[in-house]
Task: structure prediction
Amino acid sequence: MRDSVAIVGAGTSGLIAARDLAALGVPVVVYDQKTRLGYPAKASGIISINGLESLGIGYGRAVTNTLYGANIHAGGSVMRIASRHPQAHVLDRVKLNEACMDDALKKGADVRVGIKIDDEKLVGLHKDNIIVGADGPLSVVAKHFAMGSIKRYTLTYKAEYNVDVGDERVVDLFFDNNLAPKFFAWLCPNAKDILEVGIGVDAKHGNSKAAFDRFVEMREIRERIGAGRMLDGYASIIPMQTVGRVVDAEKEVLLVGDAAGQVKPTTGGGIVFGGNAARLAAKVIDEHIKRGVSLEKYERLFRKSFGADIRLHSMINKIYSNLDSKKLEFLINVFKTLGFESFFSNYGDMDRPSVMLKRFFLRKLAK
Result:
């Protein structure tokens, strides 16, 4: 049985796993091919405050804005969700990664950058180490150890503009399957004078840069951007389903974060689910080394903790992904008629729809 850990990928999930393992006294080394962690990602990532707190990250330096609500656009209708309390932070992903690395290093983890891990190096690492794959949606670890493949991806393209964002407390989401097939577009105030414009499209149904170009030519978006200067633009890929298995107990290999597809299929957000899964993985690895507990426990804990919510996110995504603009607009109007604007404003949970459903039914029973 191996008693040390090699983590491939120094993103948020990999570094959280390293931090927790090092804190438990498990020897751990993190490898990443980038020489500067977090790049080329820019300020972007709307993450719930409750979710962030669950990860135990000292994330304060990474916060660029705080959001209280969202305007959801479909056709000519808008559903406005506004809370009196802060709901989410917009984070600079580079600074978030730096915070995670600082935490991992302080606990005693070894982080080595500028090292590309290929199949040959994996074989060498695996001789002496439990392997944790945290190397993103096109994971070398998942492929090398035949952990299952992710068959559905969303392609995104986003850019920041230097403009007066208006109400910096609210993000605008645009649902239109002609414009953004099986996903959505957005305007997010990253700061008082920085507006992020972005769009996602199903990988089998379009090109994210072409969709972005069409989006910014819409009259409403042109008016928001005005004469603002475009600061940068970049593309990314998001896994939209979990892999077949997140652990191979016999080979002592685990996957966390985007490598495992631990994301919300509604938004593609993976920091909360992936980071918490990384914490579970670290706990189980420690129990495996010290007490012989099977690594299969990680799979069970992950499915038990997040399986229901991931399935609900997937179901919601399938609903809006298969509706044309008129039906989406009709659905938004039905929600407004039923009072969902008020309910989401008071009881919404952007990470855990299962919690939201419980609140909904308890509210109904209390009446």
User: Anything to note?
Assistant: The CA atoms of residues 99 and 346 lie 31 Å apart.
